[in-house]
UniProtKB/TrEMBL annotation, chain A:
PANTHER family: PYRIDOXAL 5'-PHOSPHATE SYNTHASE SUBUNIT SNZ1-RELATED. It catalyses: aldehydo-D-ribose 5-phosphate + D-glyceraldehyde 3-phosphate + L-glutamine = pyridoxal 5'-phosphate + L-glutamate + phosphate + 3 H2O + H(+). It comes from the Bacteria. Keywords: Lyase, Pyridoxal phosphate, Schiff base. Its EC number is 4.3.3.6. Homohexamer and homododecamer. In the presence of PdxT, forms a dodecamer of heterodimers. It comes from Paenibacillus glucanolyticus. The keyword Lyase applies. Residues 6-211 form the PdxS/SNZ N-terminal domain. It holds the Pfam family SOR_SNZ. This is Pyridoxal 5'-phosphate synthase subunit PdxS.
From TrEMBL, chain B:
HAMAP family: PdxT. It comes from Paenibacillus vortex V453. Its EC number is 4.3.3.6, 3.5.1.2. Pfam families: SNO. The active site is at C78, H169, E171. This is Pyridoxal 5'-phosphate synthase subunit PdxT. It comes from the Bacteria. It catalyses: aldehydo-D-ribose 5-phosphate + D-glyceraldehyde 3-phosphate + L-glutamine = pyridoxal 5'-phosphate + L-glutamate + phosphate + 3 H2O + H(+); L-glutamine + H2O = L-glutamate + NH4(+). The keyword Transcription does not apply.
């Protein structure tokens, strides 16, 4: 009997496929998310849009919030640790969290090194903007990926950019000759073996979700159409006028992402979505996607 | 021969791959009408609460019950096992209630307790590699249910005539013998139905 193997960690993410993982800030929101059909919840102290508004250093959530959420739902509970913050991650693991997110939404704790994720029994999800980042995170032991997008903006454009870039880079690698692969491994800053895997299979060895800026059911469906395995919705749900209805609508649009009549139906009368932020209005310091390397 | 995989949420592609390795054609099922085109059905692993809600929403409860009444085989893995069960421990409402078993959800604990191991399964010659992820257990079985395997004295694989259920994920390994076992159930059922 073996725990914490790659099959067990990556398999856990496979079970989330086609699902919606929702950010929640307390037990009550967690129950709403579960009742709406979320496949997991991300327990946080503040959603990304509030982190943006508040400024300052964003850290791991208070363990009380994480424990409260774990107590009231039967679906998996995820939580975020700062990039490079080994101890925050170990603390969350000790609480029994089911999945850790080494997240650029929080202020990085280390500007050089990400966490050695092989050193954990609990699996990690990490953000990536391109194939290089994706494979570096897998090399460090991530069992699941997500686009970085631009969290807390309600603007889908960056998540679209990241998903399209990763997929087009995979197609390019698929068609490379062996000698080109060696040079590409150097260009991307990734291990040759991981890149060879992409070349041979034409896909990432782990599940890749969409995240960062999903604000409507149609946004979720667009990301599925572009090849995402599922979606994370952060600020979108509990910043909307009717979270319960909104959460159900996102779940349905994700399952039936190619049924446009159904998406039209579930999109009716959802109230005002997040106002959203134009990406070019963000200063370099406000761009969360540039955290991590 | 076609085997459907309920494609509302969860590990659908993996089951389709294992089904094709086992010599049948796997078809994702998103709408209840599609059940008419398949001879057997797999309810995959995923989150049972999510799958249960979407099944109710899209009219799968009656459609799958009818599918089962026709004697067509159904195989539930992990969340799929929970969905098939007649009783769920605790106050949670059961879903399809087709199989005379009582199940406990997340019976081994949280993700850090998830594991893989080798398992003896009745009807399969050598041990099967079984991946348990936040897995359920079968606590009790009715008279018509045959226990096919146990792990530390707990029931993890069972069969009731045309219904097969496993706590773990045979679709996550390259070992497709359990899928072969199920494809054989589907083959003999459709042969019998044609007579």
């Amino acid at each position: 009997m073996e725990t914490g193997t790659s099959t067990v960690k990556r398999g856990m993410a496979e079970m989330q496929k086609g699902g919606v993982i929702m950010d929640v800030m307390n037990a009550e929101q967690a129950k709403i998310a579960e009742a709406a059909g979320a496949t997991a919840v991300m327990a946080l102290e503040r959603v990304p849009s509030d982190i943006r508004a508040a400024g300052g250093v964003a850290r791991m959530a208070d363990p009380t919030i994480v424990e409260e959420v774990m107590k009231v739902v039967s679906i998996p509970v995820m939580a975020k640790a700062r990039i490079g913050h080994y101890v925050e991650a170990k603390v969350l693991e000790s609480l029994g969290v089911d999945y850790l997110d080494e997240s650029e939404v929080l202020t990085p704790a280390d500007e050089v090194f990400h966490i050695d994720k092989w050193d954990f029994t609990v699996p990690f999800v990490c953000g990536a903007k391109d194939l290089g980042e994706a494979l570096r995170r897998i090399g460090e032991g991530a069992s699941m990926l997500r686009t970085k997008g631009e969290p807390g903006t309600g603007n889908i454009v960056e998540a679209v950019r990241h998903m399209r870039l990763i997929n087009s880079q995979i197609r390019k690698v698929r068609n490379m000759s062996k000698d080109e692969l060696y040079a590409e491994a150097k260009n991307l800053g990734v291990s040759y073996d991981l890149l060879k895997g992409i070349h041979e299979t034409g896909k990432l060895p782990v599940v890749n979700f969409a995240a960062g800026g999903i604000a409507t059911p149609a946004d979720a469906a667009l990301m599925m159409h572009l090849g995402a395995d599922g979606v994370f919705v952060g600020s979108g749900i509990f910043k909307s006028d009717s979270p319960e209805k909104f959460a159900r609508a996102i779940v349905e649009a994700t399952t039936h992402y190619d049924d446009y009549k159904l998406i039209a139906e579930v999109s009716k009368n959802l109230g005002t979505p997040m106002k959203g932020i134009e990406i070019s209005k963000l200063s370099p310091a406000e761009r969360m996607q540039d955290r991590g390397w | 021969m076609k085997v459907g995989v309920l494609a509302l949420q969860g590990a659908v592609a993996e089951h389709i791959r294992s089904i094709s390795l086992a010599g049948a054609e796997g078809v994702p099922i998103k709408r209840r009408e599609q059940l008419q085109d398949v001879d057997g059905l797999i309810i995959p692993g995923g989150e049972s609460t999510t799958i249960g809600k979407l099944m109710r929403k899209y009219g799968f409860m009656d459609a799958i019950t009818q599918f089962s009444t026709q004697g067509k085989p159904i195989f539930g893995t992990c969340a799929g096992l929970i969905v098939l069960a007649e009783r769920i421990q605790g106050d949670e409402e059961a879903h399809l209630k087709l199989m005379d078993i009582t199940v406990a959800r997340n019976a081994f604990g949280r993700q850090r307790e998830s594991f893989e191991t080798d398992l003896d399964v009745k009807g399969i010659d050598e041990k099967v590699r079984a991946v348990f992820i936040r897995a359920p257990l079968i606590l009790e079985v009715g008279a018509g249910v045959e226990v096919l395997s146990t792990y530390k004295d707990e029931i993890v694989t069972a069969r009731q005539r045309h219904l097969l259920a496993a706590s773990y994920h045979p679709e996550l390994t390259d070992d497709y013998r359990l899928h072969q076992y199920f494809v054989e159930m589907v083959r003999s059922q459709s042969a019998a139905a044609q007579k």
